[in-house]
Give the backbone structure.
Amino acid sequence: MAGLAATFGSGAMTNSIDEIEFTDLILATGTNTTENHPVIGMKVKRAVKKGTKLIVIDPREIDLVKYADIWLRQNPGTDVAVINGLLNVIIAEGLYAKEYVKDRTEGFDALKKVVEKYTPAYVEKISGVPAEDLKKAARMYAKAVRASILYAMGITQHISGTDNVKSMANLSMLCGNVGIEGGGVNPLRGQNNVQGACDMGGLPNVYPAYQQVANEDVRKKFEAAWNAQLSPKPGLTIMEMMDAAGRGTIKAIYIMGENPMLSDPDLQHVKKELQKLDLMIVQDLFMTETAQLADVVLPVASFAEKDGTFSNTERRVQRIRKAVNAPGEAKADWEVICGISNKMGYAMNYASAKEIFEEVVKVTPSYAGISYERLEKGGIQWPCPTPEHQGTKFLHKDKFSRGLGLFSAIEYIAPNEMPDKQYPFLLSTGRVLYHYHTGTMTTRSEGLSERCPESLVEINPADAEKMKISEGQRVKVTSRRGTVEAKASITKKSAPGSIFMNFHFADTSVNLLTNPALDPIGKIPEYKVCAVKVEAA
């Protein structure tokens, strides 16, 4: 995210997974950790057993609430107001790390001025979080010697997603928690190699290692390495690509390991846009909902059927080794890409994944000291600039990548779509423990499908009673964009006025309902908040 990158360098965890167990306080927000990142969730539970304090900020009563010292149940989409409230208390009571703020940061005065009005009473009106609870949480966080912030897509999937992330950085820096062991701001990546894909330039505005496309020196370096002319203009994000397809300015899309026909918001619109393309190519393991619309489908190998490296959520680069042969004509992704590139006239003649990695380290400063030989002994965390370097356990030890950490003065803005008479409920979407994302792999597993066979509509008992809806009854959920049907699950996990659904199942395409409104900077859709009505089917 552009603003945060100025301070933190990338969207990676600043610290390491193991440090979660050895910190004084964990603040978990926008992360249903035990279900979405169960290994890290286990570390959080172990830390609490050893005496670590836990603050949970979440509109749902997730499993972690059972372990929390305090739970702040905010109204969905009010995260900036809540964090500004914490900042207000910490500054007003003089609990912030004054020396750290003076020596290592800039922009404090502007931050202080903006958060002055976010008093606990004012924040309670916006967020529903009791003022006294907000004060208690602020004091707990500020007084901890080391405090770690964990967050996930419950923070980013809003029109204020970038603001939410910057707010986390504000809180962590204010209390001197960035650049220390057991501290930091730690986004939990949702998939085994999301971090690696970003590291390798799988973002529209950067080359590998977050080197800016718009930077002429960087561009010249890659032009020399790749013997090709490169555009100085950043590319488009997924949602921008869909819009461009609809307008006809993009004629072809090549989709790898992504299933937008289940994962993108406002699916009816997405389908119309994709159908306007002259050519759609899908490269995947299975015939996904998206592959069924494609002109060409290219079968590829799974993780167990190829060699290479994955980089995980804590920046750890790890070897993966082929265990079995891929079925039929399926090839490793890199082989397919090289084959197409060669046919199109740009030579890509690599003999192995190792050969590609050897090129990676030449053009990627944070990977420069990593090699297959070193990875034989175990994973290495980047930055690892030289072959002698041991890797970096936590970032920003003595200074930030930009020099001084930048505070961002941020005002709260309401979600794009709020409840009204016609659509009185707020829908939030997410995952469950047993399935991953669009279910392309997990719904094919018999055991997982037995444990969780369908999408449910979580409704608070008070709302269910008013609507005379009982457990297991089929209900219809409608937004301004579409309607889906599913069984009701009556539970206090969801607050009154809110419902929750998982989006894993094609027969209940929950993203028919969700709002495609985008964060203006990160361009991420507002999956976590949209207005709906609920009625018996």
Q: What stands out?
A: The chain has 20 helices and 23 strands. The chain has three domains: 2-188, 190-235+300-322+351-384, 425-536. Confidence is low (pLDDT under 50) at residues 1-9. The two ends are 41 Å apart (CA to CA).
